[in-house]
NADP-dependent oxidoreductase domain-containing protein (Capra hircus), 323 residues
Amino acid sequence: MDPKGQRVKLNDGHFIPVLGFGTFAPPEVPKSEALEVTKFAIEVGFRHIDSAHLYQNEEQVGQAIRSKIADGTVKREDVFYTSKLWSTSLRPELVRPALEKSLNNLQLDYVDLYIIHFPVALKPGEALFPKDENGKPIFDSVDLCRTWEALEKCKDAGLTKSIGVSNFNHKQLEKILNKPRLKYKPVCNQVECHPYLNQSKLLDFCKSHDIVLVAYGALGSQRLKEWVNPNLPFLLEDPVLSAIAKKHKQTPAVVALRYQIQRGVVVLAKSYNKKRIKENIQVFDFELTPEDMKAIDGLNSSIRYNELLLGVGHPEYPFFEEY
Ligand SMILES: NC(=O)c1ccc[n+]([C@@H]2O[C@H](COP(=O)([O-])OP(=O)(O)OC[C@H]3O[C@@H](n4cnc5c(N)ncnc54)[C@H](OP(=O)(O)O)[C@@H]3O)[C@@H](O)[C@H]2O)c1
């Protein structure tokens, strides 16, 4: 098999490629770039594409996937596409319409994976971040088990092959796993994960339940001003990662990606730069030694770039739990 297509089996029998292309870019980046970079990522070998309703680029990402199918580069079944249910649509009756909206933007018949983006429910409506007159987020109250049942129905209807969650802590995962009449377990939990926040406890928990951990922010996140404390250290400037990279004639970025794959984590890499998109595929060209892995494990320091502070104050805010 082409190593670039390396995949792992999900608990529902489908397969997910271990390296995914992250498509989120801040609003000031023209949407047309999402089209160009997604096409390029598929051309160089990415077979797993990650997006979301929130990113407001599903039209372009869908167009990129369809154009690479049309020109014969890939077949639909070769591409694994993830979309996410945004927080303003967590009420069960809003789940299917939200997925149908994504499919309509994508112009695809199904997605491979549909995940709850963030367990904090926000007031339904057009605004992605509904705020009151004081600028405070307007929360909604939704039982996530009911949301989950609506996702199960979307899978049964064939609108998505697999269903999962994102930004859930282990207690929230347990709530779904222990739900009476659970039909499908989450196949994955997509969370921030990198050498400074290696999520080892959550990873062990996920592995023990046959749930795949998908890493975002694996390169140290995009450090967007509105979301990330600028005083936090730059992951890709870490001396330990740099020394290991030098030894393997690779870059710290590729080492950070390889680290995840070797510990059984599916990893996303966002880049809107062609040179770096191509570089990230080199993750399949080398192997870290057990000593390298141990040294990278030693970097763990509970640094979370994306605290998603807008959710603080909601009972489902996930990051006050240890894991
Ligand atoms: N579920 C969630 O709540 C959630 C949250 C955040 C992200 N995500 C998903 O995860 C994806 C990845 O996470 P992320 O967006 O935080 O970014 P990331 O993958 O950690 O990447 C961070 C930055 O690294 C740079 N980069 C990429 N390859 C590089 C290389 N080889 N050398 C040096 N720098 C490199 C990129 O800049 P350039 O573009 O300039 O190359 C990028 O902005 C997102 O795009 C999105 O799909 C999900």
